[in-house]
Design a protein that fits this description.
This protein is mainly α and 162 residues long. It has a domain of 51 residues. Strands 1-2 form a two-stranded antiparallel sheet.
Length: 162
């Protein structure tokens, strides 16, 4: 059984008194001569509809080289991620240097209440931030005010599991 094919025709008008529409009329004549008029109209409607929907899929399908140019442009517009990663790595290196020198856990003096008083400590020059701000060269460390015994709490928890 043969399938019936239906063809639909759409007409539109151009006002050739306007330069833009005259240029379109000339392009249509050229496209018809090359046998590409109908495909161009279909692709154009697909493209405009896709762009109105906020998608670039049809644009990249019809013009693959645009994707590479677009990605290159987007890369140049966005701030480089390496600056953020570099900043984080510098901060981690500073923290590691503090821990390696044992200065992150200074001894504290005991007051009458038994709670450690904050003790100022010098940050090694190698671990100091690279910025011009020199106000961050002192670090205050204080013992936790809690008097609970973490080891005993842990052992009690384990004994309850059995």
């Amino acid at each position: 059984m043969a399938t019936k094919r239906y063809r639909m025709r759409y007409d539109f008008q151009l006002n050739v008194a306007k330069e833009e529409e005259l240029a379109i009329a000339e392009q249509i004549i050229e496209l018809k001569g090359q046998g590409r008029y109908s495909k161009t109209v279909r692709d154009g409607i697909r493209l405009v509809s896709d762009l109105h929907a906020g998608s670039l899929d049809v644009l990249f399908e019809l013009f693959p080289w645009v994707r590479a140019d677009f990605l290159e442009y987007m890369t140049s517009v966005q701030p480089p991620k390496s600056d953020t990663e570099t900043h984080i790595q510098k901060q981690l290196a500073r923290i590691e240097a503090l821990l390696a020198h044992g200065e992150a856990m200074p001894t504290t003096s005991r007051s009458a209440s038994g709670v450690g008083e904050p003790k100022a400590m010098r940050v090694p020059a190698s671990a100091a931030p690279d910025s011009e701000d020199d106000d961050n060269d002192m670090l205050l460390v204080a013992k936790a005010a809690s008097s609970s015994n973490a080891t005993q709490n842990f052992l009690n928890s384990i004994s309850r599991l059995q």
